[in-house]
Amino acid sequence: MRSVFDDYLAEWNHPVFWRPVVERLAERARDWPDGLPAPDHFYVYEAIDCPEAAEGGLLVWMDVSDRRTNQVIRTLGGQFDHAGLRCGPLVSHAPGQPRDLVNLTWSTVPLEGHSLPELADRLLAWLVDESQRVGGVDEGGPPSVAGRLKDRSG
After folding, report:
1. Range of the domain at 23
2. What is the overall mean pLDDT for the chain?
3. Number of domains in the chain
4. Residues 49-58 as b or e (16 or more Cβ within 10 Å = b)
């Protein structure tokens, strides 16, 4: 099954250093975690306000929608850069400026000591947890999805 992440890889226009992040997301799309929108609801852009401009980084985000009304509740994302992974809410569905990154300190994981694929797994785990917290999943969703995601990393 081809996913949006496979499309991003086919048309890759970011520094090659960050490619393993999207490769891992493409791999995970074949066994997508419960509690998240389908992979084609995710977006991958260049990192915003990244101090290491030469290598840049990636910003991966998605909209969390209310299951009953299908209206967007919140936009969540994670920025991968040389500091590591920083997750939090975004101001808009189409972030493009530093002010669109509301607070990427809700969850942070340093790059040192972690592989990029592991950080991609950590992003998915955080998105599952946060989606459940804000009410973007059905009440009966599996409570241990995040733990299973963390166990798969590395």
Report:
1. 4-152
2. 76
3. 1
4. ebeeeeebbb
